[in-house]
Amino acid sequence: MSYPPFPTLRGLARHAWLPMAVSISLVLQAGCSRKAPEADAAVPVIAMPVQATDGAVAGRFPGDVHARYEMPLSFRVSGQLLERYVDPGEQVKQGQALAKLDPADENKQLANARAALEAAEHRLVFATQQHDRDDAQFKQNLISQLQWQQTQDNYASALAGRDQAKQQYELAQNQLRYTTLMADHDGVITSRQADVGQVLAAGQQVFGFAWSGEREVYVDVPESRVDRIAIGQAATVSLPALPSHAYTARVREISPAADAQSHTYLVKLTVDHADASLQLGMTADVSLQAAHAAEGMVKIPATALFHQDEHPAVWVVNPSDSKLALRPVTVARYGERDVLLSDGLKAGERIVMQGVHTVSVGEKVTPIAPPHAEDAPQ
């Protein structure tokens, strides 16, 4: 029986490299068949044109609508509430009766004052007659000097008593008139604090009342930002309930002291050209303009600001080749959601709004709009 010859060492080496050579050849062929990546592929980024602003915004604050004049209504005399003619929310006219107290005591006081006045007038008539008689007799030396002086004194006393009784009678008339609560201006009843049958003290509030006409917006400003606000400062007022309306306003009053609990300052703004659609209690969004607005400023979202060696900068999209360039800018004011720039950008230039730390200089991009409308610059 014969056996095949045993392979030599050289033959074994030749057979071992054969599979390796085949594998290397397949890898090279697969690599050559793949397409090389494009070096200039555009990367999508959120980029939009910047907007110019006509002035710096000192801040945005929530507020609510009030009447220019709001006050409590109360009786000027005490008594038991007999009738109430209006309810909260009703529009009233000047001179309209709103409520009434029991006038029994005031009627008696008026009758007493009338009787006192009639008696004083009778005494004055008698004193006047006596004065005229004694005057004629004194001129004829028929009475003494002392008697004439006594007559003059009685007449002066009767005249003063009549005047005093007349004043008391008019005061009693006023007291009776004060038992009816009247509207002193056109307006609306905002609240009620008394019910029929309740005994009220003079000056105790019965209704809350707001005048018709002028409207104001009240905002609470933190103590760290109140120094940016001044009397007469302009503002823009928008209301969620009236999306199609926008009003201009000016600061009328700044509280001299902070609220003890909230530590905020109450700022009152008078609304220009307020119309009937501006209802009391509506929620408002107030944008206060800086006292000294500068021209040529642009506003960008805070997310668009990049820092290069601690210096502010933005990524600008070159309109000719859509490549990015990092440009230094000068910040005039940092806001809650936006940044006001005084130099470095012009209105209309397109910048990267979000993802500023994921791009690089010279990178080619495709600008796209923010996925949410509220993220777009306002």
Automatic annotation (TrEMBL):
Domain Multidrug resistance protein MdtA-like barrel-sandwich hybrid span(s) in chain numbering: 76-206
Gene3D superfamilies the record matches: 2.40.30.170, 2.40.420.20, 2.40.50.100
Recorded superkingdom: Bacteria
Alphabetic keyword roster: Transport
Protein's UniProt keywords contain tRNA processing: no
Keyword Coiled coil (UniProt): no
Main location: other
InterPro entries: Beta-barrel_RND_2, MdtA-like_BSH, MdtA-like_C, RND_pump_MFP
Domain CusB-like beta-barrel: residue ranges: 218-291
Domain Multidrug resistance protein MdtA-like C-terminal permuted SH3: 299-356
Compartments where located: Cell envelope
Family: Belongs to the membrane fusion protein (MFP) (TC 8.A.1) family.
Family matches, as NCBIfam families: RND_mfp (TIGR01730)
Protein name in UniProt: RND transporter MFP subunit
